[in-house]
From TrEMBL:
Record-annotated membrane-spanning stretches: none
InterPro entries: His_Pase_superF_clade-1 (IPR013078), His_PPase_superfam (IPR029033)
Pfam families named in the record: His_Phos_1 (PF00300)
Record-linked Gene3D superfamilies: Phosphoglycerate mutase-like (3.40.50.1240)
Protein name: Phosphohistidine phosphatase SixA
Amino acid sequence: MQFILWRHAEAEIGTGNDLVRALTAKGHQQAKRTAHRINKMLPKSAKICVSEATRSQQTAAYLQRETVLLPELNPDVLAVDLLPILQACQNDECVVWVGHQFWIGQLAAYLLTGQWTDIWFKKSAFWQFDLQFNQFNHQAKLQKVFSK
C-alpha cells in the first residue's frame, strides 16, 4: 500500500473548540504547495481521509479530491488506536491521512521502528510510505519526505 501521512498546515491559535480552528493565510499557502506535490504522485483511486478538524479538512481540500471524514483521526486520538484501521486497508490501495501531531509522529515512528515513540512533523509536512501488512507484522519503507 502507498500510505501518506500529511500533517495539517499552519492554523489559528485556539482558545475554544479545537476542532474549529481554521488555517491561517500562511497555512493556506503551505497546504496549496504541499497538495501540488502530493497530487503528482497520487492515483485517481487514492482514498483521502481527514479528521473532523476544520484545519485538516481545509488542508486536504487543496488536493481537489473527494475526502472521507474519519473522527478516528481527530487531534485527541491515540496513535495505537489507529493501527487496526490502517491494517484493514488493502495492500494495493493508496491512502492519505491528513491529521495532527502527536498521533502522526507516533504512528510514523511505529511504522519505521516498531516502537511507540515520537517524531515531530512540521506543519504541512508529509511522509510517504510503501507499507505492507501480513498476518503477524508489517514492513514499512519510507519513500519520500516533504517538509518545508
